[in-house]
Amino acid sequence: MKKTLIALSLGMALAAPAAWAQTTTLEQRMQLLEQRLLAAETRAQKAESEIRQLKQTQQPVSQAAPPDTPAIAVVSATPSEESRNNVAAPTLKLSGFGDLKLYGDVEFNMDAESRKGSLISDRDNDNEKWDINGRILLGIDGYRNLNNGHFAGFTAQPLADMTGSMNLDDAAFFFGRENDWKIKIGRFEAFDMFPLNQDTFVEHSGDTASDLYDDGHGYIYMMKEARGRSDSGGNFLLSKQLDNWYFELNTLIENGSSLFVDSTYHGRELVNDKNVVYLRPVISWTQDALSLSAAMESNVVNNAYGYYDQQGKWVDQSQRTGYGAVMTWNGLKNDPENGVVLNLSTAYLDASGEKDFSTGINALWKRFELGYIYAHNKIEQFDQNSLVGCEDDCWISDTGTYDIHTLHASYQIPNIMDMKNFNIYLGTYWSWLNEKGGNEEAQDRYGARVRFKYFF
Q1: In a designed cystine with 205, which of 171, 335, 433, 451 is the match (CB 3.0 to 4.6 A)?
Q2: Average pLDDT over every residue of 24-41
């Protein structure tokens, strides 16, 4: 009996380690299998995340971020053979603060003009003009709007012209609330109070530009003295939209004598003492195709520029106040093919030693435009003794009244080579000036232009 118990005890003692070892091995195997399953699940999640990121990278632009949340927009083009060697595909990264727009247009002209003679300033005394001119505009606009209607943005429009120089069209920053109010600061043009419609080529017998006063050569006043886009100052504009009504107040601060070519006015050289501040309020009402607008512009700074008389006394020449009104019928809103665009404008300037009145009418139908402008200048002061920069080349060299008539026309040839962004414009004008009650012989000029216009 004792031997039997001893044998059983020894057998159990020898079998227990083997059984324990077998149990431990199974548990370890189960743990190892569980670890492998977890590792496989982790790899699958990582692979799914990489596939999702790759799809997002291949989209043209990333999804818009919620307001006030910075984001990264990624743009990816079809990779070239060289770019495939890169670690990552080439991308364009944006800040995510709103939209960015790149655009531009090409505008090149072929001009032919008649003899200018004494009607044009000394700066351009060609007998006849055959010319090719133009520029390329590159525009960059940024815009951001929020869910509550607030918005902000900017615009920058550098110009590259054929003379090899770089200029600037608009450069402005703006902000406000959609369909409500807006503030705009920088270089730009405010509301147009004398629209010329499809103004491909409009020159005048008298002045080479409708927004610069060229002493002795007549003046076509068009409510543009305080409109903006000045080379010597900047604009600050407030505007408000209220149903069919639009209100605008533009403030232009600049060197006031820059309005006059060579800083001469009525035969005298101007001395600039301080900058001018023009205020230009506009009110406009629009109903369907009809719009009516009225405005005024006035310098509110006294003694900004002037001259010293023979006794050494200062004479202020900076008081200039203008008034204007315009009616527009835009039938293209309801009928893009056969609609008529009609503009009727009038403007009056009360300035130091001078009163100017202008009126114009033009119509556009089936891409053909025809217009007429009449200007009446009443010169109340003119110093023939000084006659700075004028001499024998001035048509207006004394006090009196002068009339300027201008006819202009243009035609658009659209979709050149079936390209909707490529048009050709044909333009022409005929303008003449005469002295009322004096020299009845009219001094005229005329010209024609072919304009190539390409948008991109």
Answers
A1: 433
A2: 69
